[in-house]
Automatic annotation (TrEMBL):
The lineage of its organism: Bacteria, Pseudomonadati, Bacteroidota, Cytophagia, Cytophagales. It comes from Pontibacter indicus. CDD domains: M48C_Oma1_like (cd07332). One of its GO terms (biological process) is proteolysis involved in protein catabolic process. Binds 1 zinc ion per subunit. GO terms for cellular component: membrane. The keyword Cytoplasm does not apply. Residues 340-357 have a biased composition (Basic and acidic residues). This is Peptidase family M48. Its cofactor is Zn(2+). Keywords: Hydrolase, Membrane, Metal-binding, Metalloprotease, Protease, Transmembrane, Transmembrane helix, Zinc. Belongs to the peptidase M48 family.
Amino acid sequence: MTFEGKYYNGQSSKGMPAHITLLPDGLRIDYSADEVLGSVYWELGGLHRSEFNDATTLLRYGKFPQQSISVVDKGFKEALQQQYHGAAFLKSGYNSVLGLGCAGIAVLALSLLGLLVAFVVWGVPALADRVAMYFPQSYERQLGEQLYTKMLQGYQVNDEKTAALNAYLSELDTDLDYPITAAVVTSDEVNAFAIPGGYVVVYEGILDKMEQHEELAALMGHELAHIQNRHSLRAMTRSLSYYMLASLLFGDISGVAAVLVDNASALRNLEYSRSLELEADREGLELLRRNELNEQGAILLMERLQSGSELEMMAFMSTHPNTGDRIKVLNELIGGGEQPSKKNPELERHWEQLKED
């Protein structure tokens, strides 16, 4: 039994006139291409499920790039069902759905809706988080520079304290994969935040509360841990995941960076999970150890933040986990044994410059 149709070889989108013959265990397809005749044989096991409409039958065969045939003849579908009754490729998913009945279709629709909601609520942010982890470092640095420049436009930078802070950081063994650039901005707000790619913004308000430079080292270790582990980038991409998804869906890859830069102000209000904050606290403590500085600097920093005014605490707690819990964890990490520490005249000199009015 032979039917006329079009054959597609998977290499070209051009259909070739063909005669399709139904054999006991497969299909033989004789085709002509530019006056050259050819023939292929399709085994039944290699045929893929396909939907049929009233007039046209489409069948696919093999692995990528798949071959396919198209036959505009209602009798072809009927002949296939008669010749190969029960074959897998003849089982239509559409017909299977119809066989569920109204109640089954309703349950299926609700299940699909539930999956869609789950993907939107949890899947999209998780996907954005994973995308952030695979940002090339060079691209992250460029993005961070744009975010840093955009952020500082809304602040008055204290040039003297900025120079002193960068000098302080240059004396620290930070073990960071990024070059560090920091700025001190004029503000009474008790805050500091990390920007992807090696950038940090510190408010004068948090510096004014400190009394020992080890507190500053602990703060810098905490913020640099956010950068090293891409916490800032991950939190920001999760926060803006739906804007980014829209950019990706419309094929605007450059739009992803534009979305992040346009929302640079969100950096100062980023909320990190409790686990990420505690990870940054642990690595901040490790920075103190690596530089042989007094580990109590991390505890003192937390205690000063905890002892702030109600307004300061409300602002700080809006983006950070419970400070009391963090102090408890840090005390457990430090333990009873006192780690060796030593004076660092260079760090102390830069610290005094930072504390000058």
